[in-house]
Amino acid sequence: MMKLDEIRNKIKKTKVSPIEVSYYYSVLVPLVKINGEMHLVFEVRSLNIDRQPGEISFPGGQVELDETFKEAAVRETYEEIGIDKEKIEIISGLDYIVGKNNFFIYPYLGYLHDTEVNKLIYNKDEVSKLFTVPLEFFLENEPKSYKIKYKPVMDDTFPTNMIQNGKNYNWGNIEYPVYFYKYNDYIIWGLTAKIIYNFIKKIK
User: Fold this and answer.
1) Rounded mean pLDDT, 49-77
2) Nearest Cα to 29, choosing from 20, 39, 19?
3) Are the beta carbons of 132 and 138 closer than 8 angstroms?
4) Distances, alpha carbon 77 to alpha carbons 67, 110, 188, 197, in Å
5) 3-state secondary structure the chain
6) Per-residue confidence at 32, pLDDT binned at 50, 70, 90?
7) Banded model confidence at residue 49, pLDDT cuts 50, 70, 90
8) Do the Cβ atoms of 28 and 67 come closer than 8 Å?
């Protein structure tokens, strides 16, 4: 029979983390100064990658074993857009996202020192283009917001006979907003837009 002291000791050794999260990612929200004005740096993802080809994102990726979220954000930024790690100043962590597909994203706000974006040698296997948007644009323009709804779908093996009301159980619907920014010919949307919107609300 397990005793209280044993439970206490085991729990104290565990690390608190989100339940049933399988993938951990970290991204950098990069600020850079251009002609005295603050800009955000974005990448257009390569058409040759499997996940979200051609979409607009911040530099980032999966956290590796024995790596912190902050270290992952800096490493991925270096690997993707080619900036020296020493020029990346991490200002602060931002609010994190727990996604519907068992993933966790931790964004960081960073500043790129002594950087000319148009001279960066980015990784063409992952990135097709870099561009910047003045921070003022996001301060002055609210994103368009649209709703997405999800309904649970069970296969035939799900034991509906074991729950109250069976097949008529009220699971409810999952609804959340999807944000869109349009800057010139660029459409910035999804998680990238959500991270921007949350950041902008904090500094307005």
Assistant:
1) 93
2) 39
3) no
4) 15, 10, 19, 21
5) CCCHHHHHHHHHCCCCCCCCCCEEEEEEEEEEEECCEEEEEEEEECCCCCCCCCCEECCEEECCCCCCHHHHHHHHHHHHHCCCHHHEEEEEECCCEECCCCEEEEEEEEEECCCCHHHCCCCCCCEEEEEEEEHHHHHHCCCEEEEEEECCCCCCCCCHHHCCCHHHCCCCCEEEEEEEEEECCEEEEHHHHHHHHHHHHHHC
6) very high
7) confident
8) no
Binned at pLDDT 50, 70 and 90, residue 191 comes out as: very high
Q: Is 35 left (phi over 0), alpha (psi -120 to 50) or beta?
A: left
Separation CA 113–CA 109 (nearest Å): 13
Amino acid residing at 22: S
**198, HSE (Cβ side, Cα atoms, 13 Å):** 19
pLDDT in tens, 160-182: 999 999 989 998 888 889 999 99
